[in-house]
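assembly run, all chains below
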Amino acid sequence: MIRLNTEDYPWKSGMTVRSLLDEKVFTFRHIIVRVNGEYVPEEEYETQLIQDGDDVIVLHLMAGG
Amino acid sequence: MGAILKEYRYTPAKIVRGYSGKSLYINVSDLRIEEKTITEFMKEKFTGGKGFDLWYLWNAVIPETRWDSPENEIVMSVGPLGGITQYSGTGKTLVASISPLTDIPIDSNAGGYFGPLLKFSGWDAFELQGKAEKEIIIFIDGNNGLIEIKEAEEYPEDSHVLAEQLTREYADDENDMVNVSVVCTGSAAKHGFMGMLNFSFYDPRRQTVRFKQAARGGLGTILCDKKIKALVVKYKGVTPNLNNAADLATINKVGVKYHKEMHDLDSKQNKMRQIGTANTVMIMSQYDLLPTRNFQTGGDPEVVKIAPEVFINEWLTQGLHDGCWYGCTMSCAKCADHFLLTSGPYAGERVTVDGPEYECVAGLGANLGIFDPQAILEENFYCDTYGIDLISFATCTAFIMECRQRGQITQEQMGGLDLRFGNKDAVLELLHLMSRGEGFGRLAGLGIRKLKKIFVEEFGADADLLEDIGMEVKGLEYAEYAHKESLAQQGGFALATKGPQHDEAWLIFMDMVNKQIPTFEDKANALYYFPMFRTWFGLVGLCKLPWNDIVPADNHKTSEPAKVPEHVQNYVDIYNAVTGEDIDKDELILQSERVYQFQRVFSVRMGKGERKDDYAPYRSLGPVSREEYLSRQDLYDKQLSELQGLDPEVIDLDEKIAKLRAYREDQYEQLMDAVYRRRGWTMNGIPTPERLREIGMDLPMLLEVVEPKL
Ligand code: SF4
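ok done. output:
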């Protein structure tokens, strides 16, 4: 289990930032990802592994409309 | 063409630090023209733009005033930052009046050149009062200090022909056409309550007149009722410092930094320069936020047919600068050129269609079940030229279609019009009927609130069902976002002062996806900060889009990325540089709150603006029908079990819907309480004297309104 945006979410072996975003259909381009508080640049989405128990924040930056 | 009825000569005031210090008043009943002074009191309490509009409007009307009372005014103002050319989005005109849809003050903003050219002609604000005997055109020549009122009955009605004709007539030659801007509406505005105002700008590359709209709340209907066919302003000589800013160097510096960001980052972020606001259509569908078939669901597999790429690749001209005021490098005012119309009075003609913006694709497309880009562009064109607010039209038509789907109204009662989801021909025919004021077109233009009454009283429809599915609050139709799963956005719409428009707050991602505002207090804080912050754009004459439709590359490092702190600081710096004042970001919010609270008290004065007026239709809060529940059964069952401790396996569908409804309605009540507390209102939604005192707005005229309500 990981924490995703403050809620529990099932963890899978081999999970990366990219696979998590795909699974959640988080397609908005304008996002910020932090794993355990550390910012993950977009270039590292494919390679950054998410471990069981990690705290992942995916912030969608749109508060306007 | 048209006899001159009145001429008035004036000396254009010089603009100093963003203000000309003068406003123009015209009473079209007796053709009286007066000059007023912008007082220090007005600047201190109301800043400009929408603030000035509301101040003048308050002084013009009484509580009994309705939209068509002669004393109702249309007021417009561009604000102290309006017209600077060094930053993006600096040409917005704010318009206010008492709305035919809501009976309270409506405000709406538009790009185009009218507001800045009006200010450069010497006027910070412009009041129109009274009703003319015959149709008139008002012309302001800012270079020569001349105002001319003339008869207008021989001029065409529809915006694309009228504005083109007036631009040619008042320009000295082809090169002069960029110096002319027209405000007008169209043939449908006088037959219904959702008429809008087109604000023109001449596009020399395309050699055509283009438009941005002050669309919401029936402003075009009021213009028609005053028998004003058009307003025309002409000013030649726009240069970078006509505002005589206190500190031009700072404005230039902030502008250069911002333009570099636009240049480097737009293609990686929102692609505003390729597609404009419609870039989010697919995203909204993927997040279940695209209103589909009257907000029943939040997306549809067919949405790929109206995806941004379809418009970019097949319809919208690329590579041209599409700013709606000088200096806007966001340049999002896209258009489809040489578009061939297939229906209506202009069938067979090729035209330029301004848009489509997000609201257009979502509203005239998905929300009507129409997944055809060509049909959407044709609807877009006819809404614009006929002077129809496409948001109200789309949401109202979606409501009618659902009434038909659920057997609440028959095809016969619609005069034979086959208004069912997906029938683009019937929608276009409805627009043409509205333009001619015929048949069902007359009814449809009245808006959802009045239609609900008519359908119940005359057609025997189910009143409770219509209350649930009619997407309006305070009489204004909802803007185009499905938002059932975001409690904060339910409040963002229904607690908005003028009615459910998203220009106060768009909190869906913060709330529903990011989970950044989990408690009622968190949501209330967001429903305090964002409406206050966004009100400020309307006080100073700015477009909201450059604030957060692009963000600095290092925005993620800030503690509050949703607020885009660097851009907020840009606005503080530019405001200080233009006006010579020394505000900070907190003072910015205070400027906004003064006007925000004033507008709420104004609504109370006009008979709305209390708790009873802030309730949302249930479609906004949760699933009304069985199909809606079943479309997201897993989610709703999970909520029943996790939030209410119920076992969905042992409850039948109707009971599940009822239980969920009771829970969500209670959540909404609690949200209202929290927001009212945060905004300094009583539990009945009335701003308290204490709060008004804290922000320096304990004016006797406001206290007189709120004190009897305590
Ligand atoms: S961002 Fe778009 S709407 Fe705003 S001023 Fe620029 S072109 Fe106009």
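Residues B 88-89, 111, 323-325, 328, 330-333, 543, 545-546 surround iron/sulfur cluster (CB under 6 Å).

Chain B has three domains: 4-234, 266-477, 487-550+583-709.

not gonna interpret more than that til we talk
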